[in-house]
Amino acid sequence: MKRVLVIGNGGRESAIISKLKENPDIKIFQWQFNSALNGVFPYRSDVWDINTLTDNLKKDEFDLVIVGPEAPLVMGIADELEKRGILVFGPFQRGALIEGSKSFAKNFMKENNIPTAEYDLIKSYEEGKQILKNRKFPVYIKASGLAAGKGALFVKNLDEGIRILKEIFIEKKFGEQDEAVIEDFLEGEEISMLAFISAGQYFLLPPARDYKKAYDNDKGLNTGGMGSICPVNVPESSYNKWGKIIIGRTVEGFKKAGIDYRGILYAGLMVNNNEPYVLEYNCRFGDPETQSILPLIEGDLFDICCNVAMNKKINFGIKKDLKAITVILAAKGYPENYKKGIEIKIPGMIDNISILPAGLKRKNGKYVSTGGRILGITGIEKDLEKLRKKIYTYIDEISNENTFYRMDIGI
Ligand code: AMP
Ligand code: GLY
């Protein structure tokens, strides 16, 4: 029996674990354990800090460690594990900078001729103010470092821009940030392009989309994602062409910079007139896109991840005739103020529908919420309308007066 450790406990990690479970010959451990999941074992529930966890991992304890979230990767967990001789899925720190630093990512794109919005890099409140005075609005202002998905801000006018610069540089609302990017507003259609990077090559996953706003028709505040769909309806030839321009040039750029990148590379694209522009890079699987992408992969995720970790070529199929949708059940009030401890009743399972826990735990035989995004319902089916009907009938049974979900996922 092979042993794999998954780091992270959100919906994305539930999806990774669920895919890994297709291989009956591996034993899956999780840090930090999500007690709402079946068939996975807790690992070091006594340890709360990632550095302590890493420091104590032993060489032969696991055949593979899969890192879900970006923060440990940006901190250099892959480098630390590699030093200890532990096989790890996820890029080393230098590669993770593509997500960890927007200024690095923007400069990298410029150097490698990768299309993205025009931008200015600023290092202080004063510098930003001067630049904004000569800017056409709207713009996006982005804190350079990790900001838990909350660091990209839409700015309509100068007053608003000045207030946001203050929040970034003076009030430190987004943590310690000493750089920010001011970039042009791009219009178009958003697509999440993910690829495995290994052996100096890229292996595209089918196009996905997440639904970031809280309510139907993209109303309400930005959230961690209220649902996803895969594949998005774009011609395969266009998608492959964009892959060459975006991921292909990125991989070549890594090589030029001497960056040994292995893992998932995620490019958030804005597509306008059939031309892709990068809005952001992530150095890991997207959440909640992964929940809809992985069920469409034909192949053993454990094998794929081991091969990527060893920098080998990989091989997998895509279930081309199927579509996947994920709808997130959230606590009422999310992403602002919401209750925790909501009891969730899970009905019997139905074919081709799975529940992927996020902010959910099992306590005294009951399921109770621990976060704003409680769980995702993922389904696969040939027919989109049939799939939507199945998912929504199911989630309606689970939802109660303290929860809500978007009705327009996949329309
Ligand atoms: P980011 O964290 O950079 O991915 O930005 C979060 C979201 O903000 C994106 O998914 C887009 O919806 C939006 N966004 C970011 N940058 C831009 C831009 N330059 N133009 C239009 N929308 C943007
Ligand atoms: N779905 C957006 C992200 O994972 O960053």
Q: How would you describe the overall organization of this protein?
A:
The chain has 411 residues and is α+β, with helices and mostly antiparallel strands. The protein is built from twelve helices and 26 strands. The strands form seven sheets. Strands 12, 15, 20, 22, 25 and 26 form a six-stranded antiparallel sheet that branches. Helix 5 crosses helix 6 and helix 7 (125-133) packs antiparallel against helix 8 (158-169). It is globular and about 60 Å long. The mean pLDDT is 95.
Brief rundown of the structure:
The chain is α+β, with helices and mostly antiparallel strands and 411 residues long.
Structural class: alpha+beta
Residue fraction in strands: 25-35%
Enumerate how many helices there are, as a single number. Answer: 12
Spans where pLDDT lies below 50 across 5 or more residues: none
Name the helicity range.
25-40%
What is the C-alpha radius of gyration, as a whole number of Å?
21 Å
Number of structurally distinct domains: 4
